[in-house]
Protein backbone atom coordinates (compact mmCIF):
# COMPACT_ATOMS: atom_id res chain seq x y z
CA UNK A 1 0.00 0.00 0.00
CA UNK A 2 1.37 3.46 -0.81
CA UNK A 3 1.90 5.76 2.16
CA UNK A 4 -0.47 8.72 2.70
CA UNK A 5 0.72 11.67 0.64
CA UNK A 6 1.88 14.90 2.30
CA UNK A 7 -0.89 16.74 0.45
CA UNK A 8 -3.61 14.45 1.82
CA UNK A 9 -2.24 14.69 5.37
CA UNK A 10 -2.05 18.51 5.27
CA UNK A 11 -5.70 18.50 4.17
CA UNK A 12 -6.63 16.28 7.12
CA UNK A 13 -4.88 18.58 9.62
CA UNK A 14 -7.81 20.90 10.28
CA UNK A 15 -6.97 24.10 12.17
CA UNK A 16 -6.64 24.52 15.02
CA UNK A 17 -4.66 21.30 15.01
CA UNK A 18 -5.32 19.37 18.21
CA UNK A 19 -2.44 17.01 18.81
CA UNK A 20 -1.64 14.71 21.69
CA UNK A 21 0.79 11.89 22.37
CA UNK A 22 -0.28 8.28 22.86
CA UNK A 23 1.89 5.26 23.47
CA UNK A 24 -0.55 2.34 23.69
CA UNK A 25 -3.84 1.02 22.29
CA UNK A 26 -6.36 2.21 24.92
CA UNK A 27 -5.02 5.77 25.09
CA UNK A 28 -4.79 5.99 21.30
CA UNK A 29 -8.33 4.70 20.84
CA UNK A 30 -9.78 7.05 23.46
CA UNK A 31 -7.98 10.07 21.92
CA UNK A 32 -9.03 9.06 18.41
CA UNK A 33 -12.66 8.48 19.37
CA UNK A 34 -12.70 11.81 21.25
CA UNK A 35 -11.77 13.58 18.02
CA UNK A 36 -8.15 14.65 18.37
CA UNK A 37 -6.66 15.58 14.97
CA UNK A 38 -3.11 14.23 15.28
CA UNK A 39 -1.75 11.48 17.50
CA UNK A 40 1.99 11.41 18.07
CA UNK A 41 3.84 8.33 19.24
CA UNK A 42 6.37 10.60 20.90
CA UNK A 43 9.80 9.56 22.09
CA UNK A 44 8.67 11.30 25.29
CA UNK A 45 7.64 7.73 26.12
CA UNK A 46 11.22 7.34 27.33
CA UNK A 47 10.30 9.70 30.16
CA UNK A 48 6.59 9.33 30.94
CA UNK A 49 6.32 5.60 30.23
CA UNK A 50 9.82 4.25 30.86
CA UNK A 51 10.79 6.64 33.68
CA UNK A 52 14.07 7.88 32.18
CA UNK A 53 15.44 11.40 32.64
CA UNK A 54 15.27 12.30 28.96
CA UNK A 55 14.39 10.82 25.57
CA UNK A 56 17.86 9.80 24.44
CA UNK A 57 17.68 6.12 25.45
CA UNK A 58 14.62 5.44 23.29
CA UNK A 59 15.42 3.05 20.42
CA UNK A 60 13.86 2.46 17.03
CA UNK A 61 12.61 -0.94 18.26
CA UNK A 62 10.76 0.80 21.12
CA UNK A 63 9.15 3.21 18.66
CA UNK A 64 8.13 0.40 16.29
CA UNK A 65 6.55 -1.57 19.15
CA UNK A 66 4.54 1.43 20.41
CA UNK A 67 3.58 2.57 16.90
CA UNK A 68 2.05 -0.87 16.25
CA UNK A 69 -0.03 -0.61 19.46
CA UNK A 70 -1.20 2.91 18.67
CA UNK A 71 -2.01 2.05 15.04
CA UNK A 72 -4.58 -0.52 16.22
CA UNK A 73 -6.45 2.24 18.09
CA UNK A 74 -6.33 5.03 15.49
CA UNK A 75 -8.84 5.21 12.65
CA UNK A 76 -9.42 8.92 12.15
CA UNK A 77 -6.49 10.99 13.40
CA UNK A 78 -3.21 11.47 11.55
CA UNK A 79 -0.68 9.15 13.22
CA UNK A 80 2.87 10.51 13.46
CA UNK A 81 5.80 8.60 14.97
CA UNK A 82 9.02 10.09 16.30
CA UNK A 83 12.35 9.10 14.82
CA UNK A 84 14.31 8.54 18.03
CA UNK A 85 17.74 9.86 18.98
CA UNK A 86 20.64 9.01 16.63
CA UNK A 87 18.50 7.10 14.12
CA UNK A 88 18.56 9.75 11.37
CA UNK A 89 22.16 10.93 11.18
CA UNK A 90 22.30 10.69 7.36
CA UNK A 91 19.58 10.77 4.66
CA UNK A 92 19.92 6.99 4.11
CA UNK A 93 19.70 6.30 7.84
CA UNK A 94 16.64 8.56 8.06
CA UNK A 95 15.06 6.61 5.21
CA UNK A 96 15.75 3.15 6.69
CA UNK A 97 14.52 4.19 10.16
CA UNK A 98 11.42 5.89 8.73
CA UNK A 99 10.56 2.82 6.65
CA UNK A 100 10.38 0.78 9.87
CA UNK A 101 8.00 3.30 11.49
CA UNK A 102 5.87 3.44 8.34
CA UNK A 103 5.70 -0.38 8.20
CA UNK A 104 4.58 -0.29 11.85
CA UNK A 105 1.64 1.89 10.80
CA UNK A 106 2.70 5.55 10.98
CA UNK A 107 1.17 8.00 8.49
CA UNK A 108 4.21 10.28 8.85
CA UNK A 109 7.42 10.55 10.87
CA UNK A 110 8.70 13.43 12.98
CA UNK A 111 12.30 14.52 13.31
CA UNK A 112 13.96 17.23 15.38
CA UNK A 113 16.05 20.04 13.92
CA UNK A 114 16.21 22.80 11.31
CA UNK A 115 18.61 23.43 8.42
CA UNK A 116 20.67 20.30 9.22
CA UNK A 117 17.67 18.09 8.44
CA UNK A 118 16.74 19.46 5.02
CA UNK A 119 18.62 16.76 3.04
CA UNK A 120 16.83 14.09 5.13
CA UNK A 121 13.40 15.60 4.45
CA UNK A 122 14.25 15.66 0.75
CA UNK A 123 15.30 11.99 0.80
CA UNK A 124 12.09 11.04 2.62
CA UNK A 125 10.00 13.09 0.22
CA UNK A 126 11.59 11.20 -2.71
CA UNK A 127 10.52 7.94 -1.02
CA UNK A 128 6.97 9.23 -0.52
CA UNK A 129 7.24 9.49 3.29
CA UNK A 130 5.59 12.52 4.90
CA UNK A 131 7.52 14.37 7.59
CA UNK A 132 6.51 16.57 10.51
CA UNK A 133 9.35 18.91 11.54
CA UNK A 134 10.20 20.00 15.10
CA UNK A 135 12.20 23.13 15.95
CA UNK A 136 12.88 25.30 19.00
CA UNK A 137 13.85 23.36 22.08
CA UNK A 138 14.94 19.92 20.90
CA UNK A 139 14.60 17.30 23.66
CA UNK A 140 17.02 14.92 21.91
CA UNK A 141 19.76 17.56 22.39
CA UNK A 142 19.04 18.23 26.05
CA UNK A 143 22.30 16.64 27.23
CA UNK A 144 24.39 18.69 24.76
CA UNK A 145 22.54 21.89 25.68
CA UNK A 146 22.65 21.24 29.43
CA UNK A 147 18.89 21.64 30.04
CA UNK A 148 15.54 22.69 28.59
CA UNK A 149 15.88 26.29 27.42
CA UNK A 150 13.49 28.76 25.78
CA UNK A 151 14.37 29.44 22.14
CA UNK A 152 14.18 32.63 20.06
CA UNK A 153 15.24 35.04 22.78
CA UNK A 154 17.92 36.78 20.73
CA UNK A 155 17.25 38.39 17.33
CA UNK A 156 19.68 36.01 15.68
CA UNK A 157 18.02 32.93 17.18
CA UNK A 158 14.55 34.23 16.25
CA UNK A 159 15.57 34.92 12.67
CA UNK A 160 17.22 31.47 12.38
CA UNK A 161 14.03 29.80 13.59
CA UNK A 162 11.89 31.70 11.07
CA UNK A 163 14.27 30.90 8.20
CA UNK A 164 14.50 27.24 9.27
CA UNK A 165 10.69 26.95 9.31
CA UNK A 166 10.49 28.34 5.76
CA UNK A 167 13.22 25.95 4.58
CA UNK A 168 11.49 22.97 6.21
CA UNK A 169 8.21 23.88 4.53
CA UNK A 170 9.99 24.17 1.17
CA UNK A 171 11.56 20.75 1.74
CA UNK A 172 8.05 19.27 2.11
CA UNK A 173 7.23 19.20 5.86
CA UNK A 174 3.50 18.73 6.54
CA UNK A 175 3.59 20.64 9.86
CA UNK A 176 6.13 22.08 12.28
CA UNK A 177 6.15 21.51 16.03
CA UNK A 178 7.41 24.61 17.84
CA UNK A 179 8.69 23.63 21.28
CA UNK A 180 9.49 26.27 23.93
CA UNK A 181 9.75 29.11 21.44
CA UNK A 182 9.21 32.72 22.61
CA UNK A 183 5.50 33.40 21.91
CA UNK A 184 6.05 36.41 19.58
CA UNK A 185 8.58 34.44 17.54
CA UNK A 186 6.19 31.46 17.32
CA UNK A 187 3.51 33.87 16.03
CA UNK A 188 5.93 35.20 13.38
CA UNK A 189 6.84 31.66 12.28
CA UNK A 190 3.14 30.82 12.04
CA UNK A 191 2.62 33.84 9.77
CA UNK A 192 5.64 32.93 7.63
CA UNK A 193 4.53 29.45 6.56
CA UNK A 194 1.41 27.93 4.97
CA UNK A 195 1.63 24.58 6.79
CA UNK A 196 0.37 24.45 10.39
CA UNK A 197 2.68 25.19 13.29
CA UNK A 198 1.86 23.12 16.37
CA UNK A 199 2.99 24.74 19.60
CA UNK A 200 4.07 23.35 22.93
CA UNK A 201 5.18 25.95 25.45
CA UNK A 202 5.20 28.51 22.61
CA UNK A 203 2.12 30.64 23.25
CA UNK A 204 -1.31 30.55 21.68
CA UNK A 205 -0.57 32.07 18.26
CA UNK A 206 0.24 28.79 16.54
CA UNK A 207 -1.83 26.75 14.09
CA UNK A 208 -2.58 24.28 16.88
CA UNK A 209 -1.23 22.81 20.09
CA UNK A 210 0.37 19.52 21.08
CA UNK A 211 0.67 18.07 24.57
CA UNK A 212 2.05 14.96 26.20
CA UNK A 213 -1.06 13.01 27.23
CA UNK A 214 0.09 12.54 30.83
CA UNK A 215 0.24 16.34 31.24
CA UNK A 216 -3.37 16.68 30.08
CA UNK A 217 -4.92 13.88 32.13
CA UNK A 218 -2.85 14.23 35.30
CA UNK A 219 -1.10 10.92 34.75
CA UNK A 220 2.42 11.95 35.78
CA UNK A 221 2.10 13.85 39.06
CA UNK A 222 5.83 14.06 39.78
CA UNK A 223 6.48 16.66 37.11
CA UNK A 224 4.12 18.97 35.21
CA UNK A 225 5.63 21.46 32.73
CA UNK A 226 4.75 25.08 33.57
CA UNK A 227 2.82 25.67 30.31
CA UNK A 228 0.57 22.61 30.70
CA UNK A 229 -3.02 22.85 31.90
CA UNK A 230 -3.89 19.63 33.67
CA UNK A 231 -7.51 18.67 32.90
CA UNK A 232 -7.83 15.46 34.92
CA UNK A 233 -6.48 13.53 37.89
CA UNK A 234 -5.82 10.07 36.55
CA UNK A 235 -3.01 9.42 39.05
CA UNK A 236 -5.45 9.97 41.92
CA UNK A 237 -8.14 7.79 40.33
CA UNK A 238 -5.56 4.99 39.95
CA UNK A 239 -4.37 5.41 43.50
CA UNK A 240 -7.92 5.30 44.86
CA UNK A 241 -8.89 2.30 42.72
CA UNK A 242 -5.78 0.32 43.68
CA UNK A 243 -6.33 1.30 47.32
CA UNK A 244 -9.89 -0.08 47.13
CA UNK A 245 -8.58 -3.28 45.55
CA UNK A 246 -6.07 -3.75 48.38
CA UNK A 247 -8.88 -3.26 50.89
CA UNK A 248 -11.17 -5.67 49.03
CA UNK A 249 -8.53 -8.40 49.03
CA UNK A 250 -7.78 -7.96 52.72
CA UNK A 251 -11.50 -8.11 53.57
CA UNK A 252 -12.46 -11.03 51.35
CA UNK A 253 -9.46 -13.35 51.49
CA UNK A 254 -9.62 -16.18 54.00
CA UNK A 255 -6.79 -16.04 56.52
CA UNK A 256 -4.01 -18.50 55.48
O1 LIG B 1 8.03 13.26 22.09
C1 LIG B 1 7.13 14.09 22.25
O2 LIG B 1 6.20 13.91 23.03
C2 LIG B 1 7.20 15.33 21.47
C3 LIG B 1 6.22 16.40 21.83
C4 LIG B 1 6.59 17.01 23.12
C5 LIG B 1 6.11 17.41 20.76
O3 LIG B 1 8.01 15.47 20.62
Question: Main traits of this protein?
Answer:
15% strand, 11 helices, eight-stranded parallel β-sheet, TIM Barrel
CATH superfamily: Phosphoenolpyruvate-binding domains
Question: What radius of gyration results from the CA coordinates?
Answer: 19 Å
> Structural class of the secondary structure composition?
alpha/beta
Kindly report the spatial arrangement of strands forming the biggest sheet. 7-6-5-4-3-2-1-8
How far from one another are the termini? 59 Å
Specify the number of helices.
Answer: 11
Sheet of most strands: 8 strands, parallel
Number of extended strands: 8
Percent helix = 40-55%
Overall pLDDT score: 97
Overview of the molecule:
This protein has helices spanning 6-12, 25-34, 45-48, 60-73, 91-103, 118-126, 142-145, 155-170, 183-192, 213-217, 234-252, and strands at 17-21, 38-41, 78-82, 108-112, 130-136, 175-179, 197-200, 208-211. The protein is an alpha/beta fold. The chain has an eight-stranded parallel sheet. β4 (108-112), α6 and β5 form a beta-alpha-beta unit. The structure holds 3-methyl-2-oxobutanoic acid (KIV). 3-methyl-2-oxobutanoic acid (KIV) binds at residues 21, 40, 42-44, 82, 177, 179, 200, 210, 212.
Amino acid sequence: MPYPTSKSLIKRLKRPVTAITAYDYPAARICDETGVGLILVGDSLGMVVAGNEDTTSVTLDHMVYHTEMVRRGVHRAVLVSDLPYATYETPEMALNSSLRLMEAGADAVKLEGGFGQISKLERLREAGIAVCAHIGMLPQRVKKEGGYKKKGKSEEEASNLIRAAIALEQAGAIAIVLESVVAEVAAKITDSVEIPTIGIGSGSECGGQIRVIHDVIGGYPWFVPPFATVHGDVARVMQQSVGKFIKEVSLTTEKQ
